[in-house]
Amino acid sequence: MHVIRENDLVLFYDGKRRKYVRTVRVGDRLETDLGYIDMQAAIGKEVGSTVSTSKGVRFYLLKPTLTDLIFTFRRPTQVIYPKDAGLILLEADIRPGMKVVEVGTGSGFLTAILSEYVGPEGRVYTYEYRREFLLAAKRNLSRHGLGSNVEFKLKDATRGIDERDVDVVVIDIADPWNVLRHAWEALKPSGRFASFSPTYNQVEKTCIEASKVGFIMLHTFEVLVRDIISDETRTRPASRMIAHTGFVTVGRKAVPPEES
Fold it and tell me: Which is it for the CA torsion 37, 74, 248, 122, positive or negative?
């Protein structure tokens, strides 16, 4: 049995659509339009149990997932959604213990995901040339105790990547083709890159440059996600969906023929 203690992160869920991630502290309140919850009421409760608001509305007390946490991040930039991040993790074969370079920290959405997947034995080096974005990402991760294996670098990666012998380079900037040569130099032989771009023109430039640099097995994907509503009265697609957010292009580093 997992009992909630003070300073635990808890997801408060009303059973319908309202979700709030909060750190439980004595004396704090969660204010909602359905009434407030005294945080002390959650302490000592079992995860999965419920607590009621001042208006008698019941909220479930759940352990937040990584997805729950990243959607509480402050977002000064566009982010890579979980649907695209999942494809990047699989196609780039990101595993525990790996060294991963991220180009374009942004709000830290993907940074947090990469950090969790490479684990304590792995390392993430994330590049961002805009100081305000880098600071925002640092705050987002540290607020939830994430990113102890992340090195934040205030640097324009189109001018070079410091690391060598890395497993994967993930790129989320407007001109990914300008960092591909540096990515090739940073990667191990057969290492992978994954690039996220919202337009066809960006994908075209990326693929052309990737071939010139020495990447092979280039593939570009798009992921569309639609929820399904299912209850005792109906089962049908939801009216809204997360459609186009961007394209994911992946490739592998090959040794030039004259060197092999």
Answer: negative
Q: State the CATH number of the domain containing residue 34.
A: 3.10.330.20
Cβ atoms of 109 and 147 within 8 Å: the answer is no
Do residues 98 and 84 lie in contact, with contact meaning Cβ atoms separated by under 8 Å? no
Instruction: Report the predicted TM-score, pTM, of the whole model to 2 decimal places.
Output: 0.91
Please give the order of strands across the beta sheet that includes 150-154.
150-154, 123-128, 99-103, 166-171, 187-197, 247-253, 215-222
- Which pair of tokens denotes residue 259? 């060197």
Where helices occur in 171-240 by DSSP H, the ranges are: 180-186, 200-213
The residue type of 194 is: A
CA distance 51 to 60: 7
260 lies in a domain? no
Side by side, the strands of the sheet bearing 9-13 are 19-23, 9-13, 58-62, 50-52
pLDDT tens by residue, 213-252: 999 999 999 999 999 999 899 999 998 888 899 999 999 9
